[in-house]
């Protein structure tokens, strides 16, 4: 609904919405050129706001139960599991933060960590409070091998922990094992990416390429929240206007 309203607002102010598959971005004759559905499209400025996708486990049953027991957003879906048991997969900051957040709803949480906890010391200290209270149980060295489905519903996960086969049963599963930025089309471009593939910008959302800006979840250091992404989009639009005005003065 939010996306639809944003599109309607943009169109009211004269924006043309076009759909296409962008496969390349390069600099040609002092301008930027995008390859869209195989055709070149020239522009003086480009805003990259392609977002990121949640990294999936890639195990049987995951796609079938998406939104029906398998989730990737605690703030979106956590309230559906009030007084129910949950499994959280992941060992980084996001996984620990979301597991702690989910304690406000869930009766108990099993946190499955494949190798070791990589969350910050501050978060691990906070996590320990919930472990001591019996609200969260941490399982180190526990892989997630398969999602157990019974009667077309989520039932639990099959796991291997230190070479031993285990089953964890719960009412729902939340996966937090990272994000994959949608920047594959920039692989051969000169746009600077960080080690995770996110676009590097300065505080004004400029990339290292003049006229190329980035905002939202695709940007390195983004907060991965809708409100922040919307705000950054507005800031980027103002920066682009200023950039184009300056470029016009120079010409």
CATH superfamily of the largest domain: FAD/NAD(P)-binding domain
| Tally of contiguous helical segments | 5
CATH fold topology of the largest domain: FAD/NAD(P)-binding domain
From the N-terminal CA to the C-terminal CA, the straight-line distance is: 41 Å
The arrangement of helices and strands along the chain is: HEEEEEEHEHEHEEEEEEEH
Helical residue percent band: 10-25%
Based on secondary structure, the structural category is alpha/beta
List the helices and strands and how they pair.
Elements: H1 2-12, E1 22-28, E2 31-36, E3 39-43, E4 46-48, E5 52-54, E6 70-71, H2 74-77, E7 85-89, H3 93-102, E8 108-113, H4 121-132, E9 136-140, E10 142-150, E11 153-161, E12 164-169, E13 172-175, E14 179-181, E15 212-214, H5 226-250
Parallel strand pairs: 4-15, 6-13, 7-8, 7-13, 8-9
Antiparallel strand pairs: 1-2, 2-3, 5-14, 10-11, 11-12
Provide structural commentary.
The chain has 251 residues and is of the alpha/beta class. It folds into two domains: 122 residues, FAD/NAD(P)-binding domain (3-Layer(bba) Sandwich); 120 residues, 3-Layer(bba) Sandwich (FAD/NAD(P)-binding domain). 25% of the residues lie in helices and 30% in strands. The chain contains five helices and 15 strands. The strands form five sheets. The protein has a five-stranded parallel beta sheet with strand order 6-13-7-8-9. The chain has a three-stranded antiparallel beta sheet with strand order 1-2-3, with no helix packed on it. α3 runs parallel beside α4. The chain is elongated and about 65 Å long.
